[in-house]
Amino acid sequence: xxxxxxxxxxxxxxxxxxxxxxxxxxxxxxxxxxxxxxxxxxxxxxxxxxxxxxxxxxxxxxxxxxxxxxxxxxxxxxxxxxxxxxxxxxxxxxxxxxxxxxxxxxxxxxxxxxxxxxxxxxxxxxxxxxxxxxxxxxxxxxxxxxxxxxxxxxxxxxxxxxxxxxxxxxxxxxxxxxxxxxxxxxxxxxxxxxxxxxxxxxxxxxxxxxxxxxxxxxxxxxxxxxxxxxxxxxxxxxxxxxxxxxxxxxxxxxxxxxxxxxxxxxxxxxxxxxxxxxxxxxxxxxxxxxxxxxxxxxxxxxxxxxxxxxxxxxxxxxxxxxxxxxxxxx
Length: 330
What we know:
Elements: E1 4-5, E2 11-12, E3 14-18, H1 47-60, E4 65-69, H2 79-87, E5 94-99, H3 104-114, E6 118-122, H4 128-135, H5 140-152, E7 159-163, H6 173-182, E8 186-190, H7 209-217, E9 222-224, E10 235-239, E11 245-249, E12 262-265, E13 270-272, E14 281-282, H8 284-288, H9 293-304, H10 325-328
Parallel strand pairs: 3-4, 3-12, 4-5, 5-6, 6-7, 7-8, 8-11
Antiparallel strand pairs: 1-2, 9-10, 10-11, 12-13, 13-14
């Protein structure tokens, strides 16, 4: 079996698959209120094409974890079938999904039965008005119901990803952590990244990891977790002696690019070897032109090989990717 290795010795074993660029929320740090111009339907990979590329990655290239992302993956009509097809592969990868949880209360059981192992849910606040302000939708109750359904369906550990925004929810970290611990959810705070469609991200407006720690330290005792971090993006800390933990993903102020093991496939079949890459490698065209699995695998290997040593956000020459997060996948 070949590997998706780069010139700096890193090997990609974690595949993030964006199933759609569409989303049913309009989070202010992701896209404008009116939404975006979605990909034309003919440019989006079909279910069979998605499964073929995943099979090439898992059977030929050493990928052992697949995470479905978006946009919002729950709006993809073939999601359950794609999960089932992935779960039937040999070797079978670990299968997870990042979601806003709208509609998860209706689909969690079917997804679990199809083979989904766990979910990460994006939730920045537990206050209905703040949720509506950030997402431009009054849907907090649906997210809460989706979290409960995921836990009942065994899609655990259920993780929550939260972004703190200055002037919106930057005072809410402790209450969000208490709420998550009471319900046995695992909370991860993420520094806001320059991936918004509006290109409005500003470093001086971002809530840093140090600010997150300062907020939590006022109410909790945090100690570094004993388990090794490995390639995981989150630094883990026990809360008040454990067993509960909280994670902080400090992509900007404490980058972890040297341990990155991720590669991304966009909904229109482009390989991105970094979340912040300015270039992509096309797999959709050769796929549709009749290329063999071996030929596609070689193209994938070539796409990952020149991956840069870091994302370069802290370099004055950094340029934000032309695609926003909704079109890249997390």
